[in-house]
């Protein structure tokens, strides 16, 4: 999951970034509201964590302009402003949640998970698609009630596909989700991860939900793919597995 942190206090931003990365989030940080708006126009984030007191413009203006631009990315306000009027104003502008400082890191992570679930149409921390179930809290997967072991990268890819079900995800989107622009490997490593994930799901008799959208990326559909898209042992695939994959 990719988060945009908009925080002008560098010490606070450092602590927040460390806490969120420890919870397996990819975090981009900016101290400026204008820069945050520009980043949100060009990059796809799962949620924004926003301080209201910024150096250039108010956080309220960030929310207002974000919604005016029809960008629906969820916004969690994390602020030192305790007054009820501040919360009411933030919600009226289009914020999705409000947490005051000082805060508990566990509560912040729980709220971020809840916001993301709701924005994607899920009400519970257990996400179910056909006979596949993901537990966002334990980062675990089961198929028809039987646990399925996935590597960290495989789980992250499946989680992103499930959360953004019925949406085509490009390889760039997967790379950003997995690496956040830091030491990204070659793009075809995504094909390797998807191939391994599909094989594990197939071996566990999971519903065939992941489809390739040629020239664009991958999509997870709610209805099983009856065409049974099988990935053969092609020369390309064999060569793909020779890519030096980073530690998973």
From TrEMBL:
The keyword Nuclease does not apply. Keywords: DNA-binding, Phosphoprotein, Transcription, Transcription regulation, Two-component regulatory system. One of its GO terms (biological process) is regulation of DNA-templated transcription. InterPro entries: CheY-like_superfamily, OmpR/PhoB-type_DNA-bd, Sig_transdc_resp-reg_receiver, WalR-like, WH-like_DNA-bd_sf. GO terms for molecular function: phosphorelay response regulator activity; transcription cis-regulatory region binding. Residues 124-222 bind DNA. This is DNA-binding response regulator. It comes from Neokomagataea tanensis.
